[in-house]
């Protein structure tokens, strides 16, 4: 990365991670990222790609390495190995150029307990290089309003609930228009109304063209808000890509609607395709056959096919399968680590 376009005016890309041809431009990328704490491998060989304009959900159970990856992305933790590129800038060298365009909500944002929410935000705003002093008041009020904290902004941070602290952290990430917003477990401690507000903030950011990285251990959260997902398990990325593709690639059954269920089952069995009755038709596991082959067989046998659908598995199924596969794969490595620490 050259960093040659350091002088790019506000609102334009700081640098260009990839621009040529059809390859997507990346807002963030890691290569071979690894972080070791003593004997704990928190993050291992992570190659993360965050396409510009995406809402990428980092999904993983507790301890899977989400926070550590996010901290390395933001330059808050130095990787043991590997590289991070943020808005086209190599980190940590390009931090001063990239970070003003990045809003982040990470654990322990360091607000002052005896200052009010508003005063804390004004203090944070003073450190924003892209915010002129005269614009601070307006920016603070807008951010407080956006996260639903305007009514409690005069109260001391010390008395805030976990949910209010989360909202204030989120407001800090929204003080100026950002190219990238990184939110570590943003709905942590929020009630359902708060969760809906965070979802709306994410949708608004996406609508205005910002890239968003959001971590969660809640599958429903990722499914509801994200265009892309990276599934982490024991410090490694076990799957990543567009959410729709991830779900599609895991579907292995074809649901065929037909009023002639017996005929359909007979035709498929005659063609050595295993199938069973399903609501309104038959279900075929696409293990040793393909969808076109199934449909050809049915149509040639004169079975009326009203509809054929690939069964979409929920992200929950995908997540469970990937992490189970990951368990087997990583067992030996984990054993080694755990034995070493005994
Ligand atoms: N500063 C640290 N010192 C030692 N170990 C750490 C440190 N930070 C993280 N770890 C360990 O690294 C692993 C990954 O932790 P991390 O917080 O990144 O996971 P996570 O997916 O964000 O989990 P959670 O959802 O619980 O926040 C865990 O085993 C954790 O105990």
From TrEMBL:
Gene Ontology MF annotations: ATP binding; ATP hydrolysis activity
UniProt keyword Coiled coil present: no
Pfam families: ABC_tran
Region (Disordered): 1-22
Keyword Transport: yes
Domain ABC transporter: 28-259
Gene3D superfamilies in UniProt: P-loop containing nucleotide triphosphate hydrolases (3.40.50.300)
Keywords of this entry: ATP-binding, Nucleotide-binding, Transport
Matches recorded under PROSITE patterns: ABC_TRANSPORTER_1, ABC_TRANSPORTER_2
Family in the record: Belongs to the ABC transporter superfamily.
Stated name of the protein: ABC transporter related
Species of provenance: Actinosynnema mirum (strain ATCC 29888 / DSM 43827 / JCM 3225 / NBRC 14064 / NCIMB 13271 / NRRL B-12336 / IMRU 3971 / 101)
């Amino acid at each position: 990365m050259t960093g040659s376009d350091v002088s790019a005016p506000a609102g334009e890309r700081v640098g260009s991670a990839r621009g040529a041809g059809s390859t997507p431009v990346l807002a963030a990328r890691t290569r071979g990222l690894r972080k070791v704490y003593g004997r704990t491998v928190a993050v291992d060989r992570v190659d993360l790609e965050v396409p510009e304009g995406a809402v990428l959900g980092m999904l993983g159970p507790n301890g899977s390495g989400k926070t550590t990856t996010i901290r390395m992305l933001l330059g808050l933790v130095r990787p043991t190995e590997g590289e991070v590129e943020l808005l086209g800038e190599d980190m940590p060298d390009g931090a001063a150029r990239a970070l003003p365009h990045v809003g982040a909500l990470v654990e322990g944002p360091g607000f002052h307990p005896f200052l009010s929410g508003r005063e804390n935000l004004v203090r944070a705003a003073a450190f924003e290089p892209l915010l002129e002093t005269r614009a601070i008041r307006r920016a603070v009020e807008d951010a407080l309003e956006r996260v639903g904290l305007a009514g409690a902004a005069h109260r001391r941070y010390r008395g805030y609930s976990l949910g209010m602290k989360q909202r204030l952290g989120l407001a800090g990430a929204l003080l100026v228009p950002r190219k990238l917003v990184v939110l570590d477990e943003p709905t942590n401690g929020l009630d359902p109304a708060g969760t809906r507000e965070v979802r709306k903030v994410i949708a608004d950011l996406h609508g205005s063209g910002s890239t968003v990285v959001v971590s969660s251990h809640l599958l429903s959260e990722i499914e509801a808000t994200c265009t892309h997902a990276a599934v982490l398990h024991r410090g490694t990325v076990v799957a990543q890509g567009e959410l729709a593709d991830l779900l599609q690639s895991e579907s292995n059954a074809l649901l065929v609607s037909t009023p002639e269920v017996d005929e359909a089952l007979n035709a498929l069995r005659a063609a050595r395709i295993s199938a069973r009755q399903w609501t309104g038709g038959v279900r075929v596991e696409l293990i040793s056959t393909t969808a076109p082959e199934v449909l050809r067989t049915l149509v040639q046998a004169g079975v009326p096919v009203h509809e054929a659908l690939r069964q979409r598995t929920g992200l929950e199924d995908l997540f469970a399968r990937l992490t189970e596969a990951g368990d087997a794969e990583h067992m030996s490595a984990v054993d080694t680590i755990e034995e070493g620490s005994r």
